[in-house]
C-alpha cells in the first residue's frame, strides 16, 4: 500500500514580507520596499498588496499627468508646479504642502469641532 503524501505547506522565502531597514536619509523608497512594508504592517498577502499599490500608483500618475491636484491626508496636497518635455520623457516639478503643527494625529478624525464651531456628533470619550 503506498504511503499517503503529506500536504506541503507553502514556504515563504525568508524575509519576503518583512520590512526592510528604514532607508537612510536621501535614499529613495522603492516600490518593492513600499509593497513589503505595507504587507508587513497590514498583515495582507504581498501579492494582494502589490496589485493595490500598483493600481494606486497608476491612478496617481494619471491624475498628475492631467495637472490635477491630489489631496491625500496625511501626506498632504500635491500640485504640479512645472512640466517639461525632455528627450527621455516628461519631467514634473511637484509642490507638496503638508499640514502644520497639530494637523497630523487628530486631523480629519473628528478633531475639527473646535475650529468649525459645530457641535460634535458624539462625545469625545465615546
From TrEMBL:
<dbReference type="Pfam" id="PF00216">
    <property type="entry name" value="Bac_DNA_binding"/>
</dbReference>
<feature type="region of interest" description="Disordered">
    <location>
        <begin position="1"/>
        <end position="33"/>
    </location>
</feature>
<feature type="compositionally biased region" description="Basic and acidic residues">
    <location>
        <begin position="19"/>
        <end position="33"/>
    </location>
</feature>
<feature type="compositionally biased region" description="Basic and acidic residues">
    <location>
        <begin position="1"/>
        <end position="10"/>
    </location>
</feature>
<dbReference type="InterPro" id="IPR010992">
    <property type="entry name" value="IHF-like_DNA-bd_dom_sf"/>
</dbReference>
<comment type="similarity">
    <text>Belongs to the bacterial histone-like protein family.</text>
</comment>
<keyword id="KW-0238">DNA-binding</keyword>
<dbReference type="GO" id="GO:0003677">
    <property type="term" value="F:DNA binding"/>
</dbReference>
<feature type="region of interest" description="Disordered">
    <location>
        <begin position="100"/>
        <end position="126"/>
    </location>
</feature>
<dbReference type="InterPro" id="IPR000119">
    <property type="entry name" value="Hist_DNA-bd"/>
</dbReference>
<protein>
    <submittedName>
        <fullName>HU family DNA-binding protein</fullName>
    </submittedName>
</protein>
<feature type="compositionally biased region" description="Gly residues">
    <location>
        <begin position="100"/>
        <end position="114"/>
    </location>
</feature>
